[in-house]
Amino acid sequence: MSNGAKVNQSNIKAQYLTFDLAGEMYGVEILRVQEIRGWETVRDIPNTPDYIKGALNLRGEIVPIIDLRIRFAMDNVEYTPVTVVIVLCVETEKGPSVMGIVADAVSDVLDINLSEIKDKPNLGAKIDTCFMRGMYVTKDNMIMLMDVDKLLDPEQFEGIAGILS
Amino acid sequence: MKVNMPVTDKEVIMKDGTILVTRTNLKGVITYANDAFVEISGFALNELVGKNHNMVRHPDMPSIAFQDLWETVQASKPWTAPVKNRTKTGDYYWVEANVTPVYKNGSVVEYLSVRYAPSREQVDAADKLYRELNNTKPTTIRPTGLAKLTKNIKEMSINKKALIATILFLIPNVCSMIESYQTQDMIHLGGVAFLSLIAVMLGYSILSGLLKTITSSQSIFKEIADEQFRNEIDLDRNDQIGDFYRDLYSMQVKLNADLAFSKQVGAESLRIKQALDNVNSSVMVANNNLEIIYMNNTVLETFKNAEADIKTQLPHFDSSKLLGANIDQFHKEPSKQRGMLAALTSTHKAELILGGRTLAFVANPVLDEEGDRIGIVVEWLDRTAEVKIQKEIEHLVNAVKEGDLSNRLELADKTGFFEHLSAGINELTDGIEQAFSEINSAMQYLATGNLSSKITAEYHGVYGECKNNINATIDKLAEIVGQVRESSDFINNASREIAAGNNNLSERVETQASSLEETASSMEELTSTVKNNSENAQEAKKVSTKARGLAEKGGDIVTSAVNAMAEINESSNKISAIIGVIDEIAFQTNLLALNASVEAARAGEQGRGFSVVATEVRNLAQRSAAAAQESKALIQTSIQKVRTGTEFVNETGSALNEIVTGVQHVGDIISEIAAASIEQSQGIEQVNQAVSQMDEITQQNAALAEEASAASVSMSDQSETMTSLLAFFQTAETSGIKRAAIVPAAAIRSSVESQPVSSSPKPSVRTESARVVASNEEDSEWGEF
User: Fold this and answer.
1) Which of A140, B507, B618, B766 is buried most deeply by CB count within 10 Å?
2) For position A125, what pLDDT does the model report?
3) Substitution target from A36, A40, A98 for chain B, most B beta carbons within 10 A
4) What interface predicted TM-score (ipTM) does this complex get?
5) Is the pLDDT assigned to residue A6 strictly greater than 60?
6) What pLDDT is attached to residue A155?
């Protein structure tokens, strides 16, 4: 398999879980992934932004669920049988917390050589690209690698802190 | 002594109250006899007047009686006695005759005889006396001897009687006086003398008064007899003499009044007589014996004028001797006339033709107050001239009646009324002749068609009306002729136009006929087409029924297919569900594998192997997922296709249903078409009949058009003839104006005849199928159709 070849060509390799958001591929470090679940209806949390879909009881732990599609103002937000929730461990200043993101589908687990990760494009100060780690390019796709901590920084979205605490 | 013979024993009794009056001159010649006398005497008046009165004397009368009569009357004394008279026929009648002299200016001028009807005693006594006298033949019938003396004493003058009485009265007185004188008784003497004187004087006075009275009365009577009635009479005396005078006076007055009345009556009668004398009517009066007792001047004139003519027939006729003559003399057969006139009680009119004279007369009875006829009045009219002119006028009138106006009445022999009448009639005839000749000439002009000549002379009344009417007739006729002329011109033009129009009509009718033929054949074709249609429709109906059955069967099959498809769909759905489950499982497996990968990664180097496994699991899961996806896609496709197929089948089914209903509808429509075709067929049949009728009618129309054409040509001829006839009339307008030339009708006729006109097409009943052929065969003119 091709992925295995690539792993062979780098020294430091990291595994990334790729997922599909509105037809575009994104990736997160697999070590940050706690669990992958199928989509199920979540408990709605009032007085939160739209992209916070609610909270999920994960074996006694309350996990806020964020729909990145809404967060990134994508079209075509729908929940299918292949819609999944990726439960991620987020390192915050207040310590680690667990949050879930909604993805259209889970694609693959990639072994990526860190040198092969392209920097995030500089698009000017005005555009916030902080939650991006970089881009990984395959033959077919460009995979945007997410910085989970920044992506899911509770500071970024008010209300989550309350839920988490 | 005249003796009138013969005599009969027949007595004619004089009626009581009748008075027979005659007047004679001093020689006894009759100067007058009243009607009663004339009637009873039997003589005619002219036989009596101028004759001696002794002609009526009867031989039985003693001549001494008449001698006495004459002696008496010649002594100026009245005489009265019963007298027997003889009638003309010898009969006798008794009268009480009173003869008295008539004084005129103190002297006797004539004798008046008045006779009354005597009593039978008088008649008997007289008859007896006259027989005796006839036997004894005395010389006088006056008293003689003692009788005469007695009579003389009796008739002694009053003076003498008074003287004798005085003497006789005085004798004793004188004796007494002498005696007294002798005795010297003077007183006695004186007394007697005085009384005697007084008595004598008184007696004288009485006597003289009486005598004076008698004398004056006598003179008064004479005066009265002489019709002097204004005598002075002393009415104031109170004694008997006064009474006497008063009675005398009364008598005088009464007589005066009666005489005045009689005079008046006489004057009236005279006036009437004078009037009658002088009237223009010819009046003649006859008594009951039909003797003419009166003729007025006109009748005398009339008979005098007619005398010569009458004499040719009645030779003894003498107009101067008519008075007193019998009316019979006018008649050839007097007895008939006499009988008729004797019985005349009412107006009798007749006409006599004597010697060429026409005498009309009207006889009327004259009645007295008792209603007895006392005579006959005859009115004569010499109608000779009248009859002559009547005949002339009759002749003229007949001629005029016959239309001969050339005759005129001769005026030369006419005078007075008849001249005027004749002149008037001539003028009348002239007027009629003139009027008729004018009317005639006007009518002659009219007869020759000259309407410009009129009657110009002035006429009045009926002639004027006639003239005006004739002139109006001529004017009106001229006007009418003018109008008729215009009309005839118009008719002429119109008839030509009509002829041309009729020709056109004829052609058009023929065209129409051919069109109708074509129409008829078209209708034939149409009929067969419609029949075909009908049959085809029946066929189509069968076919459609069959198609409907097939379509229904197809519908059933489609339903089965739909059911099968549904089953397939159901299976596919189940497969799809199963694949879903597989996909789910693959998904879950993938998730598990991913989680395993996560766990493996977290495990680090220790988890490497596990990671590989997880990856393999994940690959498997992904492959199964992909297979599931493919299956699912296949199944979906299958389902899709089944669904599409189902839809197709359903569509097919509904299409088949539609086909069924459509076919049914088609069947119905075809049925309707079939029915409609039958109706059409019937309708066409009717149209055919109508067309054939139209054909007949058109043929008749053609005939009529031809007739009309011929009629219009003959009308044109007629109008031309009329125009040429009207040319006969010459009115003031047309005289000299040339009539516009008229297209001769012959030209029109030739143009009409040149058209192919079928001669009297026979109205024939032909069957439709044979019609065209028949018409071709029967009428060569229709051949072009």
Assistant:
1) B618
2) 58
3) A36
4) 0.81
5) no
6) 67
Phi and psi torsions of A66, nearest 5°: -115, 130
Predicted confidence at residue B778, as pLDDT, reads: 43
Number of domains in chain A: 1
- For B491, residues 6+ apart whose C-beta sits below 8 A from its C-beta are B715, B719, B722
Helix intervals (H) in B183-289: 186-225, 240-278
pLDDT at A20 over 80: yes
**Which residue is closest to B615 within chain A, CA to CA?**
A109
pLDDT at residue B528 is higher than 70: yes
Residues of A in contact with B584 (CB under 8 A): 81
Determine whether the interchain pair A31/B601 forms a contact, defined as Cβ–Cβ distance below 8 Å. yes
Residues near A18 by beta carbon (within 8 Å), at least 6 away in sequence: A25, A26, A27, A106, A107, A108, A109, A110, A143
Q: Is A31 on the interface with B (CB under 8 A)?
A: yes
Domain around A69: 2-164
From chain B, pick out residues whose CB is under 8 angstroms from the CB of A81: 583-584, 587
At B248, the pLDDT band (50, 70, 90 cuts) reads confident
Task: State the sign of the Cα–Cα–Cα–Cα dihedral B143, B146, B149, B154.
Answer: negative
Buried b (16+ CB within 10 A) or exposed e, A113-136: beeebeebeeeeeeeeeebbbbbb
**How confident is residue A9, by pLDDT bands cut at 50, 70 and 90?**
very low
List the single residue in A37, A84, A109 with the smallest CB-CB distance to B597: A109
Q: ω before B6 within 30° of 0 (cis)? A: yes
Q: How far is B619 from chain A (nearest CA, A)?
A: 9
- What average pLDDT does this structure show over B675-680? 80
CATH of B279-382, one of 3.30.450.20, 3.40.190.10, 3.90.950.10, 1.10.1040.10: 3.30.450.20
For residue B612, which residues of chain A lie inside 8 Å, CB to CB? none
CATH of B500-726, one of 3.40.50.10540, 3.20.20.140, 1.10.287.950, 1.10.10.10: 1.10.287.950
Pick the CATH number of B1-143 from 3.40.47.10, 3.40.50.150, 3.60.150.10, 3.30.450.20: 3.30.450.20
Residue of B nearest to A19 (CA): B594
Query: Is residue B629's pLDDT more than 70?
Result: yes
Yes or no, beta carbons of A106 and B588 under 8 Å apart? no
Residues of chain B with CATH 3.30.450.20: 1-143, 279-382
